[in-house]
Write a structure and sequence with these properties.
Blueprint: E1 2-6, E2 12-16, E3 28-37, H1 41-45, E4 56-57, E5 61-69, E6 81-84, E7 87-88, H2 94-97, H3 113-120, E8 126-127, E9 144-147, E10 155-156, H4 163-166, H5 172-181, E11 190-194, H6 198-209, E12 214-219, H7 222-230, E13 234-237, H8 243-250, E14 258-261, H9 272-282, H10 291-299, E15 305-308, H11 321-326, E16 330-333, H12 338-351, E17 362-365, H13 369-378, E18 386-389
Parallel strand pairs: 11-12, 11-14, 12-13, 14-15, 15-16, 17-18
Antiparallel strand pairs: 1-2, 1-4, 3-5, 3-9, 3-18, 5-6, 6-10, 7-8
Helix pairs in contact: 5-6, 5-12, 8-10
Length: about 400
């Protein structure tokens, strides 16, 4: 089969690799009908996530048609159309039974788990296409994908919904919704969101779905700011104003009730702290540039929540933790507990409350992935979200 593979920093290729097979009795195999490049895939593209190996198959946002089922799979059959969550969960361990699926004890293989335990103190769940410390699972930017725990993860899609309406149930819609839900939004609340990539855009929508009165969205890319504004947000360009001063003025001196960091470890900008972070990451003495995290801590209203869906990878410094302590902030973060959100968010799509497909800017063939990664990396204003179609001729999908 054809698959998108990682070969080092800024080196992504489409290679012919072996087809996946059923390994365990709870596995299924799907034929991929649509897959996407996620903003967090760019961290892999930039080489800032450790334990990647040349030839690893990328991608964790994907859906398709079931073509093979293991003997212990009872809820799916060949021909079913499914969306698959990017986290892998067994459904039976202590954490899964508490709906804390991202901490599944059984999905990160025994030969891989020690890598994550050494860095983070625990193993965590396996993820598709996202390094060996997170399981080493082949990703979904491929013609076929093996999915473990077929009874637990994939959700069957009813007739009447097209791929683009439901594809983002695989990651970014639940990720955005959990980030907003973490804020415990009350009537009249103002939420500030840093980073207007796909997760940030869906965070804007999710905050309003959960009852926020105002959303203030922060970025520097013109079209992304326009997109957030079209969803009802007030916008700030961090290249035009000092963000914290603007937020203070816009909230009558109080600060946003809650803040959401959708940026993570690769903050942009030319503030002094960000320049120092850039030097340190270039010299490989750090993996993270947490300028947004620092800014959000300072900006947030006392007693507020700082929700962090943005990915962080290593050890952070110069974080104003004293400000977080002094203001009594609550921080909520982590990988999305995907399985908790699939059914309720599918219902919202079916009811017409939201169509996550609005964020798609480019539709391409799987064969176009190397160029798509480069364009998505280099021109994030024009390239908001890329959907790849396996089996289509290069350049044939618009």
């Amino acid at each position: 089969m054809r698959a998108v593979t990682w070969h080092g920093k800024h080196d992504v290729r489409v290679d012919t690799v072996p087809d996946p097979k059923i390994v365990n009795p709870h596995d299924i195999v799907i034929k991929t009908t649509a897959t996407a490049i996620c903003g967090s895939d760019l961290h892999l593209y930039d080489g800032v996530i450790p334990t990647m190996v040349s030839g690893d198959i990328l991608g964790h946002e994907f859906m398709g048609e079931v073509v093979e089922v293991g003997p212990e799979v009872t809820n799916l059959k060949v021909g079913d159309r499914v969306v698959n969550p990017f986290t892998i969960a067994c459904g039976q361990c202590l954490h899964c039974k508490s709906s804390f699926f991202s901490a599944c004890e059984n999905s990160n293989p025994a030969d891989k788990a020690p890598m994550m335990e050494a860095l983070y103190g625990y193993a965590g769940s396996g993820l598709f296409g996202y390094s060996h410390m997170m399981g080493g699972y082949a990703g979904g930017q491929a013609e076929y994908v093996r999915i473990p725990f077929g009874n637990v993860g994939p959700i069957k899609i009813p007739d009447g919904l097209d791929d683009e309406q439901v594809l983002f149930l695989s990651d970014i819609f639940p990720t955005a919704y959990q980030a907003a839900e973490n804020c415990n939004i009350q009537k009249g609340d103002t939420i500030a969101i840093w980073g207007l990539g796909p997760v940030g855009q869906l965070c804007v929508k999710s905050c309003f779905l959960l009852g926020a009165e105002r959303v203030i969205a922060i970025d520097h890319r013109t079209k992304r700011l326009e997109m957030a504004k079209a969803s009802g947000a007030e916008v700030i360009s961090f290249e035009a104003v000092r963000v914290n001063e603007a937020l203070t003025e816009m909230t009558g001196g109080l600060g946003p009730d809650h803040c959401i960091d959708c940026v993570g470890l690769e903050s942009h900008g030319w503030s002094v702290d960000n320049v120092l972070d850039f030097v340190k990451t270039t010299l490989k003495v750090s993996f993270d540039r947490p300028h947004v995290l620092r800014e959000a801590i300072v900006a947030c209203k006392p007693g507020g929540v700082l929700s962090i869906p943005g990915v962080y990878g290593g050890f952070l410094d110069k974080v104003p933790f004293g400000a977080a302590f002094g203001k009594g902030l609550t921080m909520k973060m982590g990988q999305t507990n995907m399985h908790k959100y699939l059914a309720p968010l599918l219902e919202k799509i079916q009811r017409g409350d939201i169509d996550p497909g609005f964020i798609i800017s480019h539709r391409l063939s799987l064969e176009d992935a190397p160029g798509a990664y480069k364009q998505f990396h280099d021109d994030q204003d024009e390239w908001t979200k890329v959907v790849l179609r396996p089996g289509a001729a290069s350049g044939a999908v618009q």
